[in-house]
Amino acid sequence: MTDVAMKAPAARRLRWPNVPVSVIIAVGWIAAMLVLAAFADQLAPYGFTKFDLRNRLSLPGNPAHWLGTDELGRDVLSRLIVSIRISLLIAFGATAISAIAGTTLGFLAAHFRGLVEQAVLMLADFQASMPFLILALAVLAFLGNSLPLLIGLMGLFGWERYARIARGLAISANAQGYAAAVRQLGATPQRVYLKHILPNIASTLIVSMTLVFPEVILLESGLSFLGLGVQPPMTSLGNMVGYGREYLTRAPWIMLAPAITIVVTTLAVSVIGDWLRDKLDPTLQ
Amino acid sequence: MTAPLVEVLGISRTYRMRSGLFGRAASVHAVDGLSFGIAKGETLGIVGESGSGKSTTGRMALGLESPDQGSVRFDGAPIATLGSSAWRAQRARMQMIFQDPLGALDRRLSVADQIREPLDIHKIGTAAERDDRVHELLQSVDLNDSHGRRYPGALSGGQRQRIVLARALATRPDFLVCDEPVSALDVSIQAQVVNLLIDLQARLGLTMLFISHDLRVVRQISRKVAVMYLGRIVEYGDADDLFARPQHPYTQALVSASPAPGRRSTNRIVLTGDPPNPAARPSGCAFHPRCRHATARCAAEVPQLVALDDQRQVACHLTTGARPKTQDAA
Question: Do A177 and B100 touch (CB under 8 A)?
Answer without folding.
Answer: yes
